[in-house]
Amino acid sequence: MSKEAPVNSPAKPESTFGARVRNLLIVIVAIALSVALFLGLRTETNSVSVAELGKNSIPLDVALSNGKPSIVEFYADWCTVCQKMAPDMAQLEQQYADKANFVMLNVDNTKWLPEMLKYRVDGIPHFVFVSKDGEDIAQAIGDIPRTVMASNLDALVAGSPLPYAQASGKTSKVSTQVAPTNQVDPRTHGSQVVN
């Protein structure tokens, strides 16, 4: 008597080796997709460019007249430090949007030459902190950590001295109406007064 397999018998079970290989492939694909998703999302959040920030910033004249304190950033699209700081500045702008103005002035645009001269911009990024009354109260230059910038913004909004900024001191105005009462003859080296 020969035993024949029944016609409706279940399929032969897969070998354990084959099942392990299939499960290993599923795990590898899942890990690869997770890493790709994580890196993709991380890249997406850092994709803010300094040019975008500049294009969407508040105009200088509006910022100086709307009664809110302002931070003015002098930048350039080619500036690597400006690009590096762009994601942090975008986050700070969102965080302080209702409390402070964020103004971006591109140093490659000659329109901003008077402001560059006024604030003595000789390196970028160059930040000018302006009070709600439009008075420049402090400046900072270079790569500034987000936490330091946030501390400066907290103080700016509160009207307090900025903890991490180089202050630009006030100067006395020179009056052209003041004339010396006694003039010294320059050829005498200060020993003879001419009346």
What does this structure look like?
With 195 residues, the protein is of the alpha+beta class. It folds into two domains: 16-45; 50-167, Glutaredoxin (3-Layer(aba) Sandwich), CATH 3.40.30. Helices cover 39% and strands 15% of the residues. It contains six helices and seven strands; from the N terminus they run αααβαβαββαβββ. It has helices at residues 16-45, 50-56, 60-63, 80-96, 113-118, 146-158, and strands at 70-75, 101-106, 126-130, 136-141, 166-167, 183-184, 193-194. The strands form two sheets. A five-stranded mixed sheet has the order 2-1-3-4-5, covered by helices on one side. A hairpin with a 5-residue loop joins β3 (126-130) and β4. α4 (80-96) crosses α6 (146-158). The protein is elongated and about 90 Å long. The N and C termini lie far apart (146 Å). Residues 168-181 have low confidence and may be disordered.
Which keywords apply here?
195 residues, alpha+beta, Glutaredoxin, 2 domains, 5-stranded mixed β-sheet, elongated
Could you outline the blueprint of secondary structure elements for this entry?
Layout: H1 16-45, H2 50-56, H3 60-63, E1 70-75, H4 80-96, E2 101-106, H5 113-118, E3 126-130, E4 136-141, H6 146-158, E5 166-167, E6 183-184, E7 193-194
Parallel strand pairs: 1-2
Antiparallel strand pairs: 1-3, 3-4, 4-5, 6-7
